[in-house]
Amino acid sequence: MKLLSTEFQLTGSREHGGLRLSYKRYRDPCSNHSSPNTTGIALLFMHGIGLHKETWEPVIERIFQRQHEGGNRVNIVEAWAMDGQNHGYGARLNEVALLGRTNALTAHNVADGLRQLVQSGLITGKEIVAIGHSAGTTITVLSTCGYALDQLPYRAVLLIEPATRTRAAMDKLKSQPNDPVQLITALAKTRKDTWTSREAAYEWFSRRVPWKMWDSRSLKLFVDNALLDLPTATYPDHAEGVTLAATRREEVNGYRDNESGIEGLQRLSELCSQSNLPIHCIFGSRRDVVSEETRAGILDANEGRTVSSVTTIEGAGHFLPQELPNTTADTIWRILETELTKPESRL
């Protein structure tokens, strides 16, 4: 199914750097739900570190397909995805400003982009289900900051492979050389980041973990959208080829943003214990990034983090939306059908 997509840009708040914000809206061309005032559900997707907003396209297409196949109990009008200000096309919009920043961009800064969209009026007349993956889960949770717990902007929240650690777990794992996050951070500092062409980049990524484990659609979208044509502000003297949109510096800063993760867990505790917001977690069965200890810390009922449901997708790891986009979409769809058709649902 080929969806209609439209690009949008906004400007972030001055408090969060005033960077440019890049979004894409997806609609079903066969649907009569095209009026901006149509009631129904809008899905809002946030990616993780090193990714881009278009990474969600196979998932979104499958969700709309499920709706076409008779799933009319849930009325999904449109789906939105946002680039982090230092990722994807957002990185192109902000490349000069990012290079001149002295403070690292945090999950709080990116969360401002989600709030700007929610408050822009572009999603008028719809209830929003927010869906985040990896670091995008922290960003999604933090985007509720500033809202009273009885006036939250979302109808429900789905967290896919949240990777946030408690402070105790972070302190414990910092000294362990085989800690996945420490290894990923070390690799990001020196990873190859320029290629002579997108074709050469595709060949390079297709032979390396984690990208070689991805669905072919996800890898093609990555090469098309997570890379920028040279020259860039980082490589002004490179006349040809492509480079990573999320530069080495920006990626490393993202992995080091531990305090945002801690604050995200604190906010998650508040959302779970003091609001009526349904929160659902989805994990991959392969513990390549999110260990059992990390998962247990995220779902610690003693800290108030009791969620509405926990689903494990077999045969996938941390990058499950990229590895198994159809299965991820089917899981999201089942949660939506269950959550949004409850007797107490407002829809």
TrEMBL record:
<feature type="domain" description="AB hydrolase-1">
    <location>
        <begin position="43"/>
        <end position="329"/>
    </location>
</feature>
<dbReference type="Pfam" id="PF12697">
    <property type="entry name" value="Abhydrolase_6"/>
</dbReference>
<protein>
    <submittedName>
        <fullName>Alpha/beta-hydrolase</fullName>
    </submittedName>
</protein>
<dbReference type="InterPro" id="IPR029058">
    <property type="entry name" value="AB_hydrolase_fold"/>
</dbReference>
<dbReference type="InterPro" id="IPR000073">
    <property type="entry name" value="AB_hydrolase_1"/>
</dbReference>
